[in-house]
Design brief:
By secondary structure, the chain is an alpha+beta fold. It has two helices and five strands; from the N terminus they run E-E-H-E-H-E-E. The model has no long low-confidence stretch (mean pLDDT about 95).
């Protein structure tokens, strides 16, 4: 399965992502700039903030209460497309997902 990130400089990077892998883990493994995942994906740092492409928002699931609170502490102001990529697990339904890395 594939995920594509639009990077702060406007370029894109596409990578294979195994089912069940968080998109934060995939970002770190593929050296996506600005995605740190400092907490290792335990939902306590908000350093894996991404914008989910509008075509994919309905497929990634709802923002849970704690993620919602953490999104208020991101370096870049949140939007309706904001998610913490540690909370999005790759699945067949997300094959081809497109994410944008916010510009700090």
């Amino acid at each position: 399965m594939k995920a594509t990130w639009t990077l702060p400089d406007g370029s894109t990077k596409t990578a294979d992502v195994a089912e069940g892998t968080s998109l934060m883990e995939a970002s770190v493994a593929n050296n996506i700039p600005e995605i740190e995942g400092a907490c290792g994906g335990c939902l306590s740092c908000a350093t894996c903030h991404v914008f989910v492409d509008a075509d994919w928002l309905g497929k990634v699931g709802d923002v849970e209460v704690f993620e919602d609170a953490m999104l208020d502490s991101t370096d870049v102001e949140r939007t309706d497309a904001s998610r913490l990529s540690c909370q999005i697990k790759m699945s067949a339904d997300l094959d081809g997902i497109c994410l944008t890395v916010p510009t700090a």
